[in-house]
Specification:
The protein is an alpha+beta fold. Helix content is 31%, strand content 10%. It is built from 15 helices and ten strands. The chain has helices spanning 7-26, 62-67, 97-100, 141-152, 182-189, 219-230, 282-285, 294-307, 318-331, 374-378, 395-402, 404-423, 426-444, 452-478, 614-639, and strands at residues 53-58, 75-81, 84-94, 108-112, 127-131, 159-166, 169-178, 195-197, 345-350, 353-358. The strands form two sheets. A seven-stranded mixed β-barrel has the order 1-2-3-4-5-7-6. A hairpin with a 2-residue loop joins strand 6 (159-166) and strand 7. Helix 9 packs across helix 12. The longest helix is centred in the C-terminal third of the chain and has 27 residues, at 452-478. The termini are close together.
């Protein structure tokens, strides 16, 4: 029996400690603690970027599905990812131009693991997008932009390359992208995430996947204009009627002209405050990705009101939004919030603070709407980074340039990005490595939108463009080149006249080449060079599995060996550093997370939920501490 004269106080102290620890675990954010993101197993499974993955879609009615893709109707299928089988999965067509402008049946797809079975995920991933890489001869625009976003610390979708087969027959090289939905929110913001929206005007394709009823005006005309204007070496290329706009004083074009003059986004997608009526923000709330209540709507409207006022910075996550615009303004995607159509972004809100989440960059690097010659684009001013309309119309961006402190922070993050990502040599090594990795798959791709030679030219042009862009931005930051459109002098600009923007792919280009309309048809020569010897040949339904020798990588997803590079360079090793360099980390502790090992378990994941939020572990730990405290108190009370 315990006879300690202070046993009651000891027991009370232990109980109080248990209660305090429990409160801290449950309400840590209220005490100023930063909530850790949730590590998800799929991060190191499908989204391992060191290899090209394999995805086989198995379904009996593929021809019917393909014929109805534009309706975005769900079909059931089985999906085999790197040898793992997932049954009763939903698939549909998705996208804007990647859905409406395709002429060869190579659509983009959205796979929903939990559509028919709530508990089914891919190692915690609920939804997956498979992008068809339309209008992108480089095969790298989306991939590169998301990698840049992640490196500067933005909450961005994970992505990797995947070679698709349908019922075992080659379909093509796609980009697998993490859907910005529940799994994404849990991974980046933990289980107690906020509200998610995808603002988009209905006339610009605001259907289920923001792709319904979308039409591209004068597509053939635009394609011809793209080619003609991009061949101009001077800075007048891409201006309406070939003329510089009034007040232009350098190489940065005002691209508000043309079919989307002045910006066609409504006030709500521009994130302007209109009034306190939720109906005035239908393009936001009708495209909500989370179940938002009336209180959630009122909170978002209040944030937009603050964003349009003098205290705008209090309505945003300052660090995250500035980092977003650093990467975004580098890549020059004018099919976006900074362009004339005002879409292709997600809006995240938690506690009255807003963030931007990147989406859809296949028309980045000047690929949208004849957006100027290479010299104009390489030198596009970082402090007036909009095309069509003005910065003042875009309050999510305007606050950065309305305050010298935030403009300086924007410049600081830009300088860090250029130094760590480009000056370090990391970018060049990474581009060479990815090119070596995907090149055999591009060559083998039977449905690609460009020839293999166009791919080689495109990816080399992209690399050169980015290096020149980084050089120009460094000069803009130092003052050697003007950082606004009215301070640029053509004589000081970085010369990029040898580059053709259209070589990277552009709006209206690459809608589809030689491909059979159904699995089992004779695909023939995908490159169009008069020979079928390099093209993968279908087996006319006699065997549902493709011979592994016909593909650059065997079915188990083992990447080919590129160590003997024909270019004489050794590609960087992403598994253990990049030629002695590691990717820059601007995201704090987030990059130090070690996702759980996804290798265990059965290969058939028909109804297994592999992702477990870390918040459950925290709750369990706090409960255990509380119970231990209670047991301690009861034990010693009885002994006394």
């Amino acid at each position: 029996m315990s006879t300690h004269k202070h046993i009651d106080r000891i027991c009370c102290a232990a109980l109080l400690l248990a209660l305090l620890l429990t409160a801290l675990f449950v309400n840590g954010e209220s005490f100023g603690l930063q909530k850790a993101s949730t590590a998800m197993a799929y991060e190191t499974a499908l989204f391992d970027t060191s290899k090209v993955h394999t995805i086989n879609i198995i379904m009996d009615d593929w021809d019917e599905f393909t014929a109805n893709c534009k309706s975005e109707e769900y079909y059931a299928c089985t999906v085999v990812i790197d040898g793992e089988t997932f049954k009763n999965v939903a698939i549909r067509g998705k996208g804007n131009t990647s859905l409406s402008q395709v002429t060869n049946d190579r659509y983009s797809y959205k796979i929903e693991f939990d559509h028919y079975t709530d508990a089914l995920t891919y190692h915690g991933l609920d939804k997956l997008c498979l992008n068809n890489i339309i209008q992108d001869n480089t095969y790298m625009k989306d991939y590169l932009c998301y990698q840049m976003m992640q490196q500067v610390g933005v909450a961005a979708p994970l992505c990797s390359y995947a070679y698709l087969t349908v019922n075992g027959e080659d379909w093509g090289l796609y980009l697998a992208v993490e859907a910005v939905e529940e799994s994404f929110l849990q991974r980046n913001y933990s289980s107690d995430y906020g509200e998610l929206y995808k603002p988009d005007s209905t006339e610009m394709g605001g259907g289920r996947g923001n792709g319904q009823d979308f039409t591209m005006p004068d597509t053939a005309e635009n394609a011809a204009e793209n080619t003609a204007e991009s061949t101009a070496a001077d800075t007048t290329a891409g201006f309406p009627n070939g003329q510089m706009p009034d007040g232009f004083s350098g190489g940065a074009p005002d691209m508000g002209g043309g079919n989307f003059a002045g910006g066609s986004g409504s006030a709500d997608v521009l994130l302007q405050y209109i009034d306190d009526d939720p109906d005035s923000y239908s393009n936001i709330f009708d495209n909500a990705k989370t179940s938002c209540s009336e209180a959630d709507k009122a909170r978002l409207i209040a944030a937009l009101k603050t964003l349009s006022g003098e205290d705008a910075s209090s309505a945003v996550d300052v660090d995250m939004v500035i980092r977003y615009f650093v990467a975004h303004n580098f890549v020059l995607n004018f099919d976006s919030y900074t362009g004339s159509m005002i879409h292709n972004y997600y809006l995240y809100e938690k506690g009255g603070q807003l963030q931007m989440i990147p989406w859809d960059y296949n028309l980045a690097f000047g690929g949208f709407q004849s957006s100027g010659g290479a010299t104009a684009l390489v030198n596009y001013p970082i402090d007036t980074p909009v095309s069509g309309g003005s910065i003042d119309e875009r309050p999510m961006l305007a606050w950065i340039f309305a305050d010298e402190e935030y403009t300086a922070l924007y410049h600081q993050y830009f300088a860090e990005f250029i130094a760590e990502y480009f000056d370090s040599g990391y970018f060049s090594d990474m581009m060479d490595s990815v090119k070596a990795m995907i090149a055999p798959y591009v060559q083998q791709d039977p449905t690609k939108f460009c020839t293999y030679e166009e791919f080689e030219t495109g990816i080399d042009t992209l690399k050169a463009f980015c290096l020149l862009r980084a050089e120009s931005i460094s000069a803009q930051l130092s003052g050697a080149i003007g950082s606004t459109s009215d301070t640029q002098d053509e004589a000081t600009l970085i010369d990029a006249g040898s580059l053709q923007i259209s070589d990277m792919g552009s709006m209206g280009g690459g809608m589809g080449k030689n491909i059979g309309n159904s699995i089992g048809d004779d695909i023939g020569d995908p490159i169009g060079n008069g020979t079928d010897s390099d093209a993968p040949q279908p087996n006319n339904g006699q065997d549902t599995q493709t011979d592994a020798s016909d593909r650059p990588s065997p079915p188990d997803g083992t990447p080919p060996d590129f160590s003997d590079d024909s270019m004489g360079r050794t590609p960087p090793d992403f598994s253990g550093g990049t030629s002695g360099k590691t990717p820059p980390d601007f995201s704090g502790d987030a990059s130090d997370r070690t996702p759980p090992d996804p290798s265990g378990g059965a290969s058939d994941r028909s109804a297994e939920n592999q992702g477990q939020p870390s918040s459950l572990l925290l709750m369990g730990g706090s409960a255990a501490v509380l119970l231990a405290g209670l047991a301690f108190a009861l034990l010693y009370k009885r002994r006394k």
